[in-house]
Fold this sequence. Notes:
Blueprint: H1 3-19, H2 34-44, E1 48-49, E2 52-53, H3 57-60, E3 64-65, E4 96-97, H4 100-103, E5 120-128, E6 136-153, E7 176-181, E8 187-195, E9 209-219, E10 229-237, E11 253-264, E12 272-278
Parallel strand pairs: 11-12
Antiparallel strand pairs: 1-2, 3-4, 5-6, 6-7, 6-9, 6-12, 7-8, 8-11, 9-10, 10-11
Amino acid sequence: MEDITKQRLSWFELVDRYTSRSLTKQTDVLLALSGIARSTAESTSDEYYAGLWKSHFSHCLLWASKWHVGQGFTQHSRPSDYLAPSWSWASIKGPVHYLSWINGYWYTFNAEPDPAYVPKLIDVSLQTSSDLYGILKDGSVVMEGKVGLVYSRQEAYATPMDSTHSSYTSGPQDRLSLYGVGGAGTPGKIGEIRYDVPLCSDCAPVDTIRLVWLLCCMNSKRSSDGKMGTFAIALQGEECDVAQQIFTTVPTRFRRVGVAWGIDSSFWERAATTTLTII
């Protein structure tokens, strides 16, 4: 494995370990890693944006909140005090990690994704208090990539069947199914999503529909049978009701709400290539 690949995966593991700790002040989430980030930037000549790296920015976007029904639904939130832009893992209060089925394991990591499935990073804007590696006041990115509209339907989550949480009732445990129009032009399941902040049963009763836009970020390696999956981040319009825009236009300003996977590459054949701003 090349050193650059080891370095990327090591950073992802650092994010996992670091966000699993309790912070005295959540607003210090980036400040606490500033020393390591600065040292990494100096040794690699890479650019650092709110916990993510320019050289593999689209891959860095594919973080996930580390939640599960066995741990309840109160671990994760986006605090009212500004922490970071929604596309950064630092915007979330709670454990965060990079999923193994997106990254691959150490020896199946896709270090060279197909450019057709990687969005272009056009601009990054960060407003800092004094240090680029420290506390942020505001931030956004402008990207151009494949964007498609899908929806999730709230299901009844599984519940633990014993005190050890070793078995569960049927139902999703850390994800929901995504539905949309596939490559063949027929509606159906197109992938799975994990929301950054899971909604409780009172907030999202069973069968609640939630519309999201997917921005394609990366592809997997092609399997022996020629199939290739893709991964995306899920977005919602900054201020408007996405449901009102199904037949009009794609919003231009978004917030990240989740990460999606298991999307066949054919889904993007019907997607539009769009320039958008994520805040």
